[in-house]
Amino acid sequence: MSTQQFTQAPSRRGSSRRWLLDAVDPAVAAALAREARLPLLIAELLAARGASSAEAARAFLAPSLDDLLDPYSMRGMAEAVARIEQAAARHETMLIYGDYDVDGTTATVLLKTAIERLGGTVRFHVPHRLREGYGMQREILESAAADGVRLVISVDTGIRAFAAAEAAAELGLDLIVTDHHLPEDGTGIPRALAVLNPNQPGCEYACKYLCGAGVAFKLSQALLEKQDRTLARTKILPSFLKMLAIATVADAVPLLGENRTIVSIGLAELRRPVNAGLRALLTEAKLDPARKAITATDVAFRLAPRINAAGRMDIASEVVELFTTRDPQRARDLAAKLEQLNQDRRATEAAILERILERLAEPHFAEARCIVMDGEGWHRGVLGILASRILDQTGKPALVISHEDGEAHGSGRSITGYHLLEALESCHDLFTKFGGHAHAVGFSMPSERVPELRARLVEHAAERITEQDLGGPLVCHAELALDHITAAAFSWLRRLEPFGMGNEEPVFVARKVRLAGPVRTMKEKHVRLSLSHGPRGVRISALGWHWAERVAALGIQEDDLLNIAYRLRENEHPEYGGLELEIVDLQPADSE
């Protein structure tokens, strides 16, 4: 698959963004449509997503548990399973060492539940973000060893924990590392009894972009299927996929391959929540799966922030308690606390963001292609969110840093095409510790070295990011004329869900459509347009959120011809519902 550039050039009525149109080999799409008996549009979209055979199309459109990969194809799995089974048989107490975000806490819940089903005895430790920071700490390992623990299993952490691994060996602890973050370049992996990470050297596991909970799930799958494959497949694993779907969406990993299977089945299973904590959390988020199916968007914007709030603002271990308690009242109390913490998080974030937006107007930030923003005493729990806000505002990679008593703690987010972890590795000598992946990183360092970090990253980004990269082009996935929009086509499109990173919701292009009425402005911010196209004069409504100002600047008037990039929507209003367009971008057709 390649992209065809369809540039909306500057016109007398304003400038526009570059549009890139997915260019799929017509012969491949036509063959897939015939072989899999698909509409050509769906075949084009599937081929662009790498599903170019009938079997691949089937797996994409109708994922099943049979599509889960063999956990034993992950390097280290056999050794990890054998040691955990041995510990359970000997009644050894095991320690699961987690992380404080959605990924780490759900990973802890999944593996804890799986081991306890084997009859194992498990303790867990989820670090406090502010008091301990990310990763395994020697003091916790020493305490565990003193209490008789002999096996430690990390989840969503550990691939760069060389010091912790050496400490575990000194203390006589066996260590199993389960993680998904990228190993440190050129230094290998920590010394451990087993390391489970699809990104480690020599691992042939096909899905390289599992989240941390996904790796913990594969270990759980291997343990449970070995004990009773039928029970695992019919009851336990589908239940586990509810939690794993939340973690996978929250961690923004590509929703392709096994991740797509996980999220598709997991979201379907969320229609029947049994876990007391999950039910309480859905109630706090005002989601009722009995009335409306839970979507990936619901998870990303309503469930994940509430779970994350615990680790950002308080004690993340309460998330593990929320999802493991059988007491409905305790579950409701914990879910209500997460709701309050999320409100506190939003208020804290808003106060810091106001100061950040004021500073972004400073010339050196406007000129830089990578933003490094720091402040004194900023709450560490919201740094990653603030980095995302800067990225959204500027279209540039962003790192946000908080200074506390001479130590700087930071979090970063990046644009497509700029590998942020590699950027940090170019400055590795500045950090006390750092880690992450292409799009998100975390680090700590002496405060006095932040100016040098800023200078080196600005230089690094200037050499690798072009002006065209900033803000990013608009990737459109197919051309779909208005007179080809049907209820059947929309029904097929729904089968491509869940959408997310790697499986973005399709953006369509329609050219030279006519504005068939005056522009309607709603609440002084939004617009609704009536568009027509084709020999039959097909009409359809288009809604533009926050488009009022831009439409006015373009001077668009009734009967103008427009090129429009849009997503297809269904308005469920009982009186004037039906299919409509959501405007992503538009320009007068004479600017093409």
Automatic annotation (TrEMBL):
SUPFAM superfamilies: DHH phosphoesterases. GO terms for molecular function: 5'-3' exonuclease activity; nucleic acid binding. Residues 478-585 form the RecJ OB domain. Belongs to the RecJ family. InterPro entries: DDH_dom, DHH_sf, DHHA1_dom, RecJ, RecJ_OB, SSDNA_exonuclease_RecJ. GO terms for biological process: DNA recombination; DNA repair. It comes from the Bacteria. Keywords: Exonuclease, Hydrolase, Nuclease. Gene3D superfamilies: 3.10.310.30, 3.90.1640.30. This is Single-stranded-DNA-specific exonuclease RecJ. Residues 370-458 form the DHHA1 domain. Residues 94-248 form the DDH domain. It holds the Pfam family DHH.
